[in-house]
């Protein structure tokens, strides 16, 4: 991999650094096999020269190391933090371009936790009534009990069918059927016994109604209640308790390939009001963050292998802007997927009607989710040092898209803005 500025000199510095491994200055580079929906982590390549000034005449050559892709893989994408996502990188033989043996000899590869890791889509209603996690082996639809049921009741609300539409849409993607598990969950209010019984009745109510709304003859249906035993987040606030009151519907299709080639969820519904300034993607918008002016733009996104990739540009004409953890956080119903201490830019979402498409998630070795965006805290260091934030999203199926940062509700330190009319081009 050869890097150089188009004019003058520059230093890569810590642009590709892994935030949790001291001295690893290229560890946050990732390789994506988008056709297989997998991600590989950089695993010990030589990072010599990252602090050296380079130019077009004297480029910096890096040899990141990844685990091997499956035989027959013809191309991959390269995710470079603070630069972009570069698709259609050909996979060639070990002697076709450079001396692989020499590159490995100068490296310290450790492939124990290198991947491949599955990529998972996360799509849902802006109001938090439902969210769909689309993974390699299963699709999980999370239904908010606050919308689906009356308080402390297993009787379906008048809005329940609208919420359950996300499940019936998921079922329609897999006509051959498979396994269908419906599980109720509660918060920690009231007794364990009461919550267990309530969660079981709510699972039963959802299962019964799905049988009326969709043909479940090809699905093996199981119903269960977990009470308060499996919270998604600590039950330490009203907002978190609302997150934990839910019914989860897990689809394990017998033919996963039937669901490929289309959007995870169809857009629709009324577009929510913007939480911040609005402009076109090409022109961008100015937002105020900690008393300083930040300009944000996104000229286009590329469609490749069922995904959309883009580079969000953050710049400032006058100020140096340092971002804190919550700058790119979302409301608790979404942020609960990653936790409140993550440094990732979680809130760079696409909006199609009332449906929000979050950045793709890499499933970690311990089961955690990592958004396919920058993972470390950002800084715009004045007018000469803008930041490019690469993002990978599920395909929305549109010709133009809308980037929407919703803020996180009560915390004004989270950036909110909307960019419209962003063209989708083929990679």
UniProtKB/TrEMBL annotation:
Localisation per UniProt entry: Cell outer membrane
SUPFAM superfamilies: OmpA-like
InterPro entries: Bact_OuterMem_StrucFunc, OMP_bac, OmpA-like, OmpA-like_sf
A GO term from the CC aspect: cell outer membrane
Keyword Ribonucleoprotein assigned: no
Main location: membrane
Domain OmpA-like: 136-255
Keywords of this entry: Cell outer membrane, Membrane
Biased composition (Gly residues): 260-270
Region of interest (Disordered), residue spans: 254-278
Keyword Nuclease attached: no
Protein name in UniProt: OmpA family protein
Organism in which the protein naturally occurs: Actinomyces respiraculi
